[in-house]
Amino acid sequence: MKMATRSSSRVLRTIPVILVAAAPAAVVLVLAPTVTYGSSTMYEVTASSYIGGSGADDSVRGCAIQSDGTVVLAANIGDAAPGGLTPILLSSATSSSPGAVVRLSPDGRTVLSVTRLADLVLDLAVDENDNVYVALWSEGVIKLNSTATSVIWSKSPGSVARIE
Fold it and tell me: Mean pLDDT for the chain?
C-alpha cells in the first residue's frame, strides 16, 4: 500500500491508495479513513478501477495526491483509454506510448486527464505547487504543470527510476 499524504493549514489527510499490478491491467483502490479505534484506523473503499488495457505489462507505478485531492498516477497503460479520453501527448510521446500520467478526481471515480509521456514511467511526485515530476527511466525525468498539460522542464541524467 502506498500512502499519499497532503497537509493543509489545519488538517493532515492521509489517503491510502492501493496499487495492485495484475494482468490484464492494474487495479487501483482509493480508501478513505472512516473510524479510528485507539491506534487502528478503519478504511472504506471509495473507488476501485482497472487502469490499463489488455497488455501484460500494464501497471500503476506511483501515486500522489494534489492539494485539491486530485489523485495522480504514474501508469503504464498500453493502448488503453482510461475514461474514454483522448490523451494529451507530451515530450516525444505518441498515442501508443504506454507511459502516462493519469489524473483522477478526489473521490477516484472520474478520470480527469491522461497524459502520455514515454515508453515507460516508473514513479512520480508532486511539489508544493502541485507540479508533477515523473521518472521516465532511460528518458530521464520530466516536470509537468499541475494539470499535466505542459512540460516545464525535462532532464536526461541517465536512467531515473525513483522520484522523492
Answer: 79
pLDDT tens-digit series, residues 69-115:
898 999 998 888 888 999 999 998 999 899 999 999 888 888 999 99
Element (H, E) at 44: strand 40-51
Query: Phi/psi of residue 82, each to 5°?
Result: -50, 135
Q: Which residues pair with 40 in a beta bridge?
A: 37
CB 118 within 8 A of CB 139: yes
Give rounded-to-5 percent helix, strand, coil for the chain: 0, 55, 45
Those residues whose C-beta lies under 8 Å from the C-beta of residue 118, and which sit 6 or more positions away, are: 91, 92, 93, 97, 99, 136, 137, 139
| Residue pair 111/119 in contact by the 8 Å Cβ criterion | no
Cell 493519469 appears where?
102
C-alpha atoms less than 13 angstroms from C-alpha of 51 in its C-beta half-sphere: 36
pLDDT in tens, 116-152: 999 999 999 999 999 999 999 998 999 999 999 999 9
- Residue 95's SS3 state is coil
Which H or E run includes 20?
A: strand 12-22
